C-alpha cells in the first residue's frame, strides 16, 4: 500500500476499515488536558478495557450474592467448569487444540510451572537457551529454576545476542547456536516477540531445530498472544504461556494462558507441581490420595479458578472473536503499523538521532515499533505524553509505540506522526 501523510488519507483508511466499529467497544482514557481521548499506543503493556468487562464481573458478583457456594455447580456459568468457557477462544488465539490450553494463575507463575515439567536437566543435558535481555521476570524465573536444580546460572543459561552493530537476532544465528549446543541443550525458552525490540522470532524453525538436538522448546507469548497469528500445534511447540492483559485486554494482573502440546496430554507421569484443580474432574471431590491429572493442559491447574478475572477475560476474548480473530486483526495491524513506520521514516532526523529497531519486515514484527532515541529520548517521551500520546519508556533509551487494530485508528496514527514531527522540528 502507498501511504500518504495527510489527515484525509488517514480518515479514508478508517472509513474503509472493516473493524472500525470496535473502537466504540473500548473505554479510552482522556488526554491529560481532558479535552479529548488520549492517543493510546500502549496496548503492548496494558490493553484497554472492553465496555462489556464491568457487566461480566457484576454478573459473577450477582451469582456469588445469590448462589454463594452453590455457584460452583449452579447458574448459567458454574465456576467448577469456568476454565472451559475460555478454552476454545484461547485455542484459536494461539493456534492450538482446546485440550492443549488452559487459563489459570499469572504468567510468571505459569512459566515456573511449565519449567518444572519441561526443564528436567541431566548431568550432561542441562543448558537452557534464551534471548539475551529477555523480560526481567523471565530472566529471574530461569535463574532461580536453574539454581533450584543445583546448577549455576552462568554455566547453565546460554543467552543469544545480536551481532555487533545489530539490534535484533538473525534466525540463522539462533539455529547455529542450537546446533552448537547439541546434546547439552535441555530446553529453549524464548519470547515469541521480544518485548524490547518487538522482533518476532521464527518459532517454527526454532522448534524444529530444538527438537533435532533433542531439546524441549517453549515460548513466552506475552507480547505475541492476540498480536500475531500463532500456530503452536502445527509448529510442534512443546509448551507456552502468555498473559491476558496486554493484547488480550483482560485487565491488570489478569489471568494467564498455558499451552502444552497434545503429545503430553496423556502422560500423567510427566513431572509437575500439582494441585486439586488439576486432578481428574470426575473424581476430584472424592479427595483421594495420589495425584491423577486431567487430560491435557488442564492437568497443570493448581487452584480453583479466579472467576472475577476470568469473567473479564471471557468478555475480552469475545471481542477478539467478534472482530474475526487473528486473521482479521492482523490484516489491519500490518497496515496500521506500516503507516506509523511510514510517518516516522519521514521525520527529518538522521538515524544517528532516532531509529526504529523493530524489523522493517512485517513478518518479523507485530503491532509494536520500538524507537531507539540516541539523544534527548526522555524529552521526546515527555513531549509525547504531554500531547496525550500514551506509549512507554524502556531504559535506557527506547520508546515503544503500539497501534492496536482493535481500537486504534489510522487517524490516531496520523496524529502521533504530527506530535513526533513537532518534536523533530525543534531538534
Ligand atoms: C509482561 C510480561 C511478563 C509479566 O509477567 P506477569 O507474571 O504477568 O507479571 C512476563 N514476561 C514477559 C515476556 C512479559 O512481556
Automatic annotation (TrEMBL):
One of its GO terms (cellular component) is cytoplasm. GO terms for biological process: anthranilate metabolic process; L-kynurenine catabolic process; L-tryptophan catabolic process to kynurenine; NAD+ biosynthetic process; quinolinate biosynthetic process. It catalyses: L-kynurenine + H2O = anthranilate + L-alanine + H(+); 3-hydroxy-L-kynurenine + H2O = 3-hydroxyanthranilate + L-alanine + H(+). It comes from Hymenobacter rigui. Gene3D superfamilies: Aspartate Aminotransferase, domain 1 (3.90.1150.10), Type I PLP-dependent aspartate aminotransferase-like (Major domain) (3.40.640.10). The modification N6-(pyridoxal phosphate)lysine is found at residue 246. The lineage of its organism: Bacteria, Pseudomonadati, Bacteroidota, Cytophagia, Cytophagales. Homodimer. This is Kynureninase. Pfam families: KYNU_C.
